[in-house]
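Re: the request from the purification team.
They wanted to know what the chain is likely to look like in 3D before they choose a buffer screen. I agreed to run a prediction and write the result into the notebook, where they can find it.
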Amino acid sequence: MRAPNPTVLVVGATGRFAGLVLPELVRRNATIRALIRDPASAEKFRRLGVSEVVTGNLRDPQSLEDAVEGVDGVFHIGPAFAPDEAAMGVAMVEAAARAGVRKFVFSSVIQPTNTRLKNHASKVPVEDSLYSTNMEYTILHPANFMQNIAAAWPSIVRDGVFSEPFPKTAKLARVDYRDVAEVAAIALTEARLSYATLELCADGMHSREEIASMMSEELGRPISAGEPTFGEWAANARLPYDDRQLQLLATTTPSTASAETA
């Protein structure tokens, strides 16, 4: 970026994943503007290094115009599985472009063109809209988030079972979203990742049986690898899959079933 201390709007700062981008931007001396829905949480974000907090709604065009005014870059991750996720993402891209924003980083999903999955299909219009702007975009395609295991950890410890909705012997690529956040911050504060589309994952692929074995060793007691049905898994994760979506998921290979739960 031309600005020595760029101002970056972080969309979804209250979420589990966008929130990880904040410390990476602070580390790089960026001025952070956080877009949040609840003004009551503003002080918490200021303690995290956020310089400015704006209250807005991704479904309110005027609040988007206000949020992007005067910023150099935008980090956007949509609310996963929201029925209008694509429309909200496109609206943010268009608002940023109209405001003359220089850089835009979009946290998408690995293999977004696997449009049989709703959370993948919703990313395609957002990516397409970026290609039609003059902004320096960077599109991130992260694999299954390791943080999803962290979210399931209490039930793993309680029940002694690590469950995901695909064969327990299938090897899966994963990524720590803290690493994704670092890449996002680099893209927003430097020039080297402009116009890049990046698939992001950690080294190696592990089956659920292998991960359960690691858990057993660390905990000193057995952890088994479970194989719930897609319906059972979606219900436990409180994800809004319908019956058709579950059928499509059942025919999808684990490498593409990102199961993001932002």
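For the purification team: Residues 240-257 have pLDDT under 50 and may be disordered.
Please add any questions underneath this entry.
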